[in-house]
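> call design_seq(struct)
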C-alpha cells in the first residue's frame, strides 16, 4: 500500500474516481460489520460479575444472534449485521449496546467497554460452559485467565475472500497506528499499568497472536495454519489470534487489533478507518503494487511502543525504525486512505472524529482523566459504564 507524507492540513476535496474492475465496472461499497466484547459489572461493588450467560439469555429475545457468550463468564459479545452505510452501522451499534444495557439492568448489572478489567478478578477465571471453552482451558491453562480482555473486531466483506491474505499483507504496517488510535485499556487489576493498551501486551503472550506473518499466497497461509494445528499451537482455526486474519467462517478480512471501544463514536471511527484501509489495499492489489514488508522486529517494536504511549509522544515508523510523532503517523494513515474514505462518503465523519480524539484523547486518555479527580478506580469504572451507552 502506498504511504504518502503526513498531511497536517485537511485533504483537498477534489473528486476521486470510483475504484473499478479491469472491465471498467465500478465496484460496490465494501460492507463492514462489528463485533464488540463487553465486561459485566456489579454496580455497587464495581466488581466483575460472572453472569454473562444469563445476560445473553436475557437479551436474546431482542437481539437474537447478535448477542453471544465469550470464554469467560465475565463477558458478552455484541455483533452488528454487515452494512455498506456507516450511518446505519452507527445506529445499530448504539441500539445493540442500549438493548444489552437494558437487559443487564434487569439483572442488576451494567456493561462496560474497556480492553482490560479495571477491578481485580479472581483466578482462575470462571469459564463459560461449553466443550470448546473447556478444551481451551485445558490446553492453554493460565493463558485463559487473560481472556477477560475485550476487543473490537472489524469485519470487511471482500468480493473474493482469497484476497484476505493479500489485504493482510498491505495492512500490516498500519497495525501500530491502529493500536494507538484505539487504545482503551490503561488499568488492570485496580492499577494503572503505564500502558495505553495493556490488552495488546497481554494478548501477545498467546502462541498465535500479534502482527501476522507476511504470506506469499493463500496457499502459504493455509500451509502455515496447517503446521500450527499439527504443532498443537492452535486447537482450531478460531484460535488464530493474529491482529488480521481471513475470517474462518465469513467471507471477510477480520481486523482484531483494537481494544474494545469506549464509545459508539470510537467504534464507528475505527470501522470507517479499517474499511478504508481495506479498500486502499484492494486498489493497490489491482494496480499490482507490492505490499510493504517491515522487518518483523521493527513491526513488533512499533506495536509495543503504540501500546505503551497511545497517541501521546512518539511512535516507531515500522518501515524506517525512526521515532515519529504519533499524531503525524495517524495523519499519514488518514492521508493515505482519503480517496477510499471519500468513495464511501466517510471522509467528513473521520475528520470530525479525529479532531475529537486530538482534543479529548483516545479511550485510555479519557479513562485516566476520570481517575485524576479523586484517584479512584471506582470513578473510572463508573465513567466507562456511562460512556459505553451515552444517552
Amino acid at each position: 500500500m502506498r504511504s504518502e507524507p503526513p498531511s497536517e492540513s485537511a485533504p483537498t476535496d477534489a473528486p476521486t474516481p470510483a475504484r473499478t474492475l479491469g472491465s471498467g465496472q465500478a465496484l460496490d461499497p465494501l460492507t463492514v460489520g462489528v463485533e464488540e466484547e463487553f465486561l459485566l459489572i456489579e454496580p455497587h461493588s464495581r466488581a466483575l460479575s460472572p453472569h454473562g450467560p444469563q445476560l445473553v439469555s436475557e437479551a436474546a429475545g431482542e437481539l437474537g444472534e447478535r448477542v453471544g457468550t465469550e470464554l469467560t463468564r465475565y463477558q458478552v459479545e455484541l455483533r452488528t449485521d454487515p452494512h455498506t452505510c456507516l450511518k446505519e452501522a452507527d445506529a445499530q451499534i448504539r441500539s445493540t449496546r442500549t438493548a444489552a444495557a437494558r437487559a443487564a439492568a434487569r439483572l442488576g448489572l451494567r456493561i462496560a467497554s474497556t480492553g482490560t478489567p479495571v477491578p481485580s478478578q479472581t483466578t482462575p477465571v470462571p469459564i463459560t460452559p461449553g466443550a470448546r471453552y473447556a478444551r481451551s482451558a485445558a490446553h492453554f491453562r493460565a493463558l485463559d485467565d487473560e481472556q477477560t480482555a475485550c476487543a473490537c473486531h472489524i469485519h470487511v466483506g471482500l468480493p473474493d475472500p482469497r484476497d484476505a491474505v493479500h489485504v493482510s499483507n498491505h495492512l500490516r504496517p498500519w497495525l501500530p497506528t491502529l493500536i494507538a488510535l484505539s487504545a482503551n485499556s490503561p488499568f488492570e487489576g485496580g492499577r494503572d499499568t503505564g500502558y495505553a493498551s495493556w490488552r495488546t501486551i497481554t494478548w501477545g503472550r498467546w502462541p498465535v497472536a500479534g502482527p501476522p506473518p507476511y504470506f506469499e499466497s493463500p496457499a502459504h497461509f493455509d500451509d502455515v495454519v496447517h503446521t500450527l494445528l499439527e504443532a498443537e499451537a492452535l486447537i482450531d482455526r478460531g484460535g488464530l489470534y493474529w491482529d488480521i486474519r481471513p475470517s474462518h467462517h465469513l467471507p471477510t478480512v477480520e481486523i482484531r487489533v483494537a481494544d474494545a471501544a469506549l464509545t459508539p463514536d470510537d467504534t464507528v471511527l475505527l470501522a470507517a478507518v479499517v474499511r478504508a484501509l481495506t479498500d486502499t489495499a484492494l486498489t493497490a492489489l489491482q494496480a499490482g503494487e507490492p505490499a510493504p514488508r517491515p522487518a518483523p522486529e521493527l513491526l513488533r517494536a512499533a506495536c509495543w511502543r503504540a501500546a505503551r504511549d497511545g497517541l501521546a509522544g512518539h511512535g516507531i515508523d515500522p518501515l524506517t525504525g525512526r521515532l515519529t510523532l504519533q499524531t503525524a503517523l495517524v495523519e499519514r494513515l488518514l492521508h493515505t486512505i482519503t480517496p477510499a474514505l471519500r468513495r464511501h462518503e466517510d471522509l467528513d465523519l473521520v475528520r470530525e472524529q479525529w479532531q475529537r480524539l486530538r482534543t479529548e484523547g483516545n479511550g485510555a486518555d479519557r479513562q485516566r482523566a476520570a481517575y485524576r479527580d479523586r484517584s479512584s478506580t471506582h470513578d473510572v469504572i463508573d465513567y466507562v459504564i456511562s460512556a459505553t451507552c451515552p444517552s
